[in-house]
Structures are given as structure tokens and as C-alpha cells.
């Protein structure tokens, strides 16, 4: 579903502006394919999941540094960020220390800063790429590797994010109405935001109930935690708008770039790791180790 681009002022028109295009086919098709790959690799083991995150970091780093680096398609900063993400995950799994992995990310950020300062292409933004990609990657791999039911926890996070994104798209396009943040992302509406959160609550309640946990608490958590997914989406939209881009890339048909697909997951992964490791939350609500 796509809203016509000439209708981005005032309230969103809702279903009246919906027009059929190939995104109706390619978006769900590639979404299901990517979800199946992610879940399959996730249950194959922490090492395989870390390898997948490292692989994703390659195009993601390219897109980030292209966005903040004046459109350069390939940069040394992007290669350094991708390498820092991959190496930090290896250090994390070998040392079983999150802070050791963080040290590698900090080194990657420092290297990007120094390289970018030499060519004058937004060194702080370039350095931030290592943190933006590296810390969430470490968080997700840590949840998978070091938590009981780690695979189920990460799958639950995926379900919240995917339901939030899908619900926001569907309800936003069908209902329309007041826009959430027109200066940052004009297509996003309050109807889509609340609809995405409601769908996240329903999906997560069903998931936790299936595992034997408490559905009611899971529904409340899914609704509230979906805010992190919305925030991640808005942050990437802000960065793209700040640097004059519509999409981070075009690698995934119907979705745009890798960062367009991963922005919500990056924020949600970091937030969930904080809740689990710092506040000792059991996000499966009653499912015992």
C-alpha cells in the first residue's frame, strides 16, 4: 500500500489515496523470506547468528556511511565499521564479555572519526555508525548466547518489531489522519503508530501464551515495547531527512535498504538487552529456564 507522494501536507487521506503497485507483492514476499532466514539462522546457534549479523553489517555500514558521507558509495569508513562489528561479535563470543566487544566497537568508531576528519565528511556522524550498528549487534548476540531461552527471546523481539512495522503500514495507510512527525517522516501517522503497537501487543501475547507464559502481561509489554521500534524507525528517518535522502538504499525489493529494514530492530535489540541484563527482566513472562 502506497500513499501518493503529492499528498503529504495536512492529515493523511487514508484508504482514498491507496493505489496498487508492485510493493503489495514484493514487500510481503521478501519480508517472509527474510524472516524465515533470520529465524532459521537464529536457532542454528549463537555462532551462526553472530555470522549473520556480521554479514548484515556490510551493506548496512555501506548505507550508513553513504548517507552521512556526502553520497560516497564505498568508503574506508564503511569497511572499518563493518569489520569492527564482525570482530566485536567474535570477541564477545570468545571472551563472554560484552565490554570486550564494546572496546572493539569504540576502536572502530575512533578509526572512522580519524579517517573522516581527514576528508572532511562529517566525522562525528561517521564515527557514530560503529555504535549505531555495533552495539545493537552485540546486544542481540548476547541475548542469543547468554540467556536461557535466548533464541525464543530474540524471536519474540522480532515478532514485536515486525508486527509494529506491519501494523503501522496497514493502519496508517487505511485510516490516515493526523501525522506523527511530519517534519521527520511525513508518511507516518498516529493511527499507524497506535495500530502497529496494538498489533505488536496481540502478536506478542499469542507468542508468549504459546510458550506457556502469561499472555496479559506480554500484551502490555508488547504494546509498550513497540515504542522502541517506532523510535528506531523515526531516528533513521531523521538521519535520512537531515542528509536529504528518501531511502537508505534499494537492496531489498519493497523495503528499500538494509537500514530501512533493520532500523527498528537495532533500537529494540539494544533496549531489550538493557532490560534483560541490567534489570533482570524475563521478557517471556512466566516461561522458566
How would you concisely characterize the structure shown here?
This protein is mostly helical and 289 residues long.
Distance between the termini: 42 Å
How many β-strand runs? Answer: 4
Mean pLDDT: 91
The arrangement of helices and strands along the chain is EEHHHHHHEEHHH
Query: Which band does the percent of strand residues land in?
Result: under 5%
How is this structure best described in words?
There is one protein chain. The chain is mainly alpha-helical. It has two domains: 13-42 and 152-289, no CATH class; 48-146. Helix content is 71%, strand content 4%. It has nine helices and four strands; from the N terminus they run E-E-H-H-H-H-H-H-E-E-H-H-H. The strands form two sheets. A two-stranded antiparallel sheet has the order 1-2. It has a two-stranded antiparallel sheet with strand order 3-4. The longest helix has 28 residues, at 215-242. The chain starts with a strand and ends in an 11-residue tail after the last helix.
Amino acid at each position: 500500500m502506497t500513499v501518493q507522494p503529492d499528498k503529504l501536507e495536512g492529515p493523511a487521506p487514508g484508504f482514498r489515496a491507496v493505489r496498487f503497485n508492485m510493493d503489495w507483492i514484493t514487500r510481503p514476499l521478501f519480508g517472509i523470506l527474510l524472516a524465515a532466514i533470520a529465524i532459521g539462522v537464529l536457532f542454528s546457534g549463537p555462532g551462526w547468528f553472530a555470522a549473520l549479523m556480521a554479514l548484515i553489517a556490510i551493506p548496512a555500514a555501506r548505507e550508513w556511511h553513504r548517507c552521512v558521507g556526502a553520497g560516497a558509495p564505498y568508503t574506508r569508513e564503511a569497511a572499518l565499521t563493518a569489520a569492527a562489528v564482525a570482530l566485536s561479535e567474535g570477541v564477545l563470543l570468545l571472551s563472554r564479555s560484552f565490554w570486550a566487544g564494546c572496546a572493539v566497537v569504540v576502536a572502530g568508531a575512533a578509526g572512522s572519526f580519524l579517517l573522516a576528519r581527514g576528508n572532511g565528511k562529517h566525522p562525528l556522524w561517521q564515527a557514530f555508525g560503529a555504535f549505531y550498528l555495533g552495539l545493537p549487534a552485540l546486544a542481540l548476540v548476547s541475548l542469543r548466547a547468554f540467556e536461557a531461552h535466548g533464541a525464543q527471546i530474540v524471536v519474540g523481539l522480532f515478532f514485536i518489531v515486525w508486527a509494529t512495522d506491519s501494523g503501522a503500514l496497514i493502519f496508517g495507510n487505511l485510516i490516515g489522519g493526523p501525522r506523527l512527525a511530519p517534519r521527520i517522516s511525513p508518511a507516518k501517522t498516529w493511527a499507524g503508530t497506535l495500530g502497529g503497537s496494538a498489533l505488536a501487543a496481540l502478536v506478542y501475547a499469542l507468542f508468549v501464551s504459546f510458550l506457556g507464559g502469561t499472555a496479559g502481561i506480554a500484551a502490555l509489554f508488547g504494546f509498550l515495547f513497540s515504542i522502541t521500534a517506532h523510535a528506531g524507525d523515526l531516528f533513521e528517518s531523521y538521519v535520512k531527512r537531515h542528509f536529504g535522502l528518501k531511502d537508505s538504499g534499494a537492496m531489498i525489493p519493497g523495503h528499500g535498504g538494509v537500514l530501512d529494514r533493520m532500523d527498528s530492530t537495532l533500537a529494540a535489540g539494544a533496549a531489550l538487552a538493557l532490560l534483560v541484563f541490567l534489570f533482570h527482566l524475563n521478557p517471556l513472562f512466566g516461561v522458566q529456564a
